[in-house]
Design brief:
Length: 201
């Protein structure tokens, strides 16, 4: 089967698009959610994070101390890079194990915010980018998270520019409020099903 990645900047609506693919019967691996789980439950990764960041990285109940970690690493690019070097390989291996368990589907989707930044797209057959105008993305995140505009803009500024992601993608879905999502998803789905059949033959 084909291994397909899907990504998009914050507020682009990639989760909504993934739900449409799931309705079509395509399994989706949510890498960012899975990373959070692994950071609390995979013993070797927990030990690595403790070694890098110290005991304050976790609460007394063994939960990630997310706000403390964010404050620690986002002002320190080198420390963030070291943390990513622990987390990304663990998530990549977990994703491969998950893909091996999928059956009776022409392709799987791996949803990840840092698909291109982490380099994991190089291990996939195809990539999809969900994109939307900047102002619409900002409004969506402000409404969703109840955060001020500046906080959203800072998060966007830390991500790869949207146009760079679009250039790297094999497929692009425009979630701009003008074009319908479902026909775009179905067209890509049909193309991927045909590509998977061609790979088998």
């Amino acid at each position: 089967m084909l291994h397909v990645g899907i990504t998009g900047g914050i507020g682009s609506g990639k989760t909504t698009v993934c739900k449409i693919f799931e309705i079509l019967g395509i399994p989706v691996y949510y890498a960012d959610e899975r990373a959070k789980w692994l950071m609390e439950h995979q013993a070797s990764l927990v030990q690595g994070i403790l070694g890098l960041l110290g005991q304050e990285a976790y609460t007394g109940e063994g939960k990630l101390n997310r706000s403390w970690i964010s404050g620690k690493v986002f002002g320190n690019p080198e420390l963030l890079s070291q943390l990513n070097a622990l987390v990304h390989p663990a998530v990549a291996q977990d994703g491969f194990d998950w893909q091996d368990r999928q059956t009776d589907c022409p392709y799987t989707l791996k949803e990840a915010a840092l698909l291109f930044e982490s380099g994991s797209y190089l291990l996939l057959d195809k990539t999809i980018v969900v994109t939307a105008p900047l102002e619409l993305r900002i409004k969506r995140v402000m409404d969703r998270d109840g955060v001020p505009r500046q906080a959203v803009q800072e998060r966007i500024d830390r991500q790869m520019p949207e146009e760079d992601k679009v250039r790297k993608a094999d497929y692009v879905i425009y979630n701009d409020g003008q074009r319908l999502l479902i026909p775009q998803v179905i067209a890509i789905h049909q193309g991927l099903v045909e590509a998977a059949k061609a790979m088998i033959s």
